[in-house]
């Protein structure tokens, strides 16, 4: 569980990220969950977007993906959302170091 200072740190880091995930009218499928899991394993922090054609809101999509991938929903603004999942398999120097 992230505290407010950690969320603020991750939100600041997410400003520079490109959106790598889009949820469309197909919603959240197994392929989307696999893509998110792989991206989180490689990067720890990802930014996604829910298209207007989707039946889900960005908050619903972020919460569902976080639940399915065992990640944390960091932020939802408009149609965009940010997810974080710590990965202990990446070398320490490449991991995101959260404030205490």
TrEMBL record:
<protein>
    <submittedName>
        <fullName>RNA-binding protein</fullName>
    </submittedName>
</protein>
<dbReference type="InterPro" id="IPR001890">
    <property type="entry name" value="RNA-binding_CRM"/>
</dbReference>
<dbReference type="Pfam" id="PF01985">
    <property type="entry name" value="CRS1_YhbY"/>
</dbReference>
<dbReference type="GO" id="GO:0003723">
    <property type="term" value="F:RNA binding"/>
</dbReference>
<dbReference type="InterPro" id="IPR051925">
    <property type="entry name" value="RNA-binding_domain"/>
</dbReference>
<dbReference type="InterPro" id="IPR035920">
    <property type="entry name" value="YhbY-like_sf"/>
</dbReference>
<feature type="domain" description="CRM">
    <location>
        <begin position="1"/>
        <end position="96"/>
    </location>
</feature>
<keyword id="KW-0694">RNA-binding</keyword>
């Amino acid at each position: 569980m992230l505290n407010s200072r950690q969320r603020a740190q991750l939100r600041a880091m997410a400003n520079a990220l490109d959106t790598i995930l889009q949820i469309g009218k197909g919603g959240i499928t197994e392929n989307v969950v696999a893509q998110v899991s792989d991206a989180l394993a490689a990067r720890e922090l990802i930014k996604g977007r829910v298209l207007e054609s989707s039946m889900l809101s960005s908050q619903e999509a972020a919460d569902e993906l976080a639940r399915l991938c065992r990640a944390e929903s960091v932020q939802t603004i408009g149609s965009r959302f940010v997810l974080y999942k710590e990965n202990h398999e990446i070398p320490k120097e490449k991991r995101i170091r959260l404030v205490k």
